[in-house]
Design goal:
Length: 333
């Protein structure tokens, strides 16, 4: 079969990213232009600024990818774009850009869900082996899914309130760490001990809850400040991380016992966390399950994962029309 080159576009949050992906498995070239430093001044992503920066930068990012890959748009077989979920204004920049390229160069358009992108990021490193258990952990999602085949998502559980990445970011804020908080909390946690006893909700199901854990950290910091006591930030970060990850371990263990899966993947920004990666590796070893984790550069938002997720849709000829619209909600499962 002829090689398939997909040009993929991702603008759902604060990264303007474009990649060329070959046969759904090989990233030929990728550019990820992050707006992180700009949003760090505000302590989080400012949607209006994000969409304006995507508009300013997207053509430059495309030119760079085409120049570095020494390819032209004529060499491309399809244009893929993240259409949901995410910040509406940001998504719209990518969607309109993709539709324009699709129309001008007469290439099929593929609408890709961002969460599917995170999952299929694993195809850039290994091969998705079905049936599998997928743990999606990002800034907006904490989902446990069973996949029996491509694009077949059965939800076992999800967060009842905050996503794990969101909890990391809020904890970072009360510890006066810079945005995005996750990697900074991880850095402190590496230097600390699990000494603080934090209260939170165990659901006894496949669901998790992070709002109680987050509030527990916020209240502790507040109370200690009022009493004039010093907080050991490293220990608090470590205690939070241990509790947050232990919730994931609990639901995955339950799934290993009840669902009898032999393959597992983790996906999403928080899958870059080395404590989580290590804990999942030893759990999978204990249950004799194959674990797939994306390479670091494919864990957080990037366009290569969108190209990987677009490939099964390309093979099925599931193409979008030029009336494709962006959507801020999930729409995947
Ligand atoms: O997948 P992603 O890049 O964007 C969304 O789709 O949400 O995930 C971003 C989230 C943020 O909450 C960020 O703090 C978290 O992933 N994150 C981490 C780490 N790297 C990114 N959380 C914990 N440890 C990390 N190393
Ligand atoms: Zn993401």
């Amino acid at each position: 079969m002829k090689d398939v080159y997909i040009l993929a576009i991702e603008t759902s949050c604060d990264e303007t990213s474009i990649a060329i992906v070959k046969n759904g498995h090989e990233c030929v070239c990728m550019n990820v232009l992050t707006q992180m430093d700009t949003h760090a001044n505000f302590g989080g992503v400012v949607p209006e600024i994000a969409s304006r920066m995507h508009t300013e930068n997207i053509t430059m990012v495309l030119d760079d990818v085409l120049a570095k890959s020494k390819m032209s748009l004529e060499d491309i077989d399809a244009i893929a774009v993240t259409y949901a979920p995410g910040l509406l204004g940001s998504l719209l920049v990518g969607v309109e850009f993709a539709k324009t390229l699709s129309f001008l160069y007469d290439k099929p358009l593929i609408a890709v869900n961002h969460i599917a992108g995170h999952i299929y990021a694993n195809n850039l490193t290994s091969n998705l082996q079905f049936p599998l258990l997928a743990l999606v952990v990002s800034g907006g999602h904490t989902d446990l899914l069973i996949m029996k085949k491509d694009y077949d998502f059965e939800v076992l559980g999800k967060t009842l309130d905050d996503a794990i990445g969101e909890a990391y970011d809020k904890v970072a804020r009360v510890l006066d760490l810079k945005y995005p908080g996750g990697p900074n909390v991880e850095k402190l946690a590496k230097e600390g001990q699990n000494t603080y006893h934090l209260g939170y909700l165990h659901t006894n199901s496949y669901n998790v809850s992070y709002s109680g854990l987050k509030s527990s950290v916020i209240n502790l910091v507040h109370n200690e400040k009022q009493r004039g006591n010093k907080i050991n930030k490293n220990d608090l970060a470590c205690s939070f991380q241990t509790a947050a990850v232990s919730e994931l371990i609990t639901i995955v263990k339950k799934a290993f016992k009840e669902q009898k899966v032999k393959n597992m993947l983790i996906a999403g920004g928080v899958s870059a966390n080395s404590y989580l990666r290590k804990q999942m590796q030893s759990l999978c070893q204990e249950f004799n399950v194959n674990l797939s984790i994306p390479e670091f550069k494919y864990c957080t938002d990037n366009a290569a994962m969108i190209g990987a997720a677009a490939y099964p849709l390309y093979l099925k000829k599931e193409f979008a029309n030029l009336d494709l619209n962006a959507s801020s909600s999930t729409e995947l499962f």
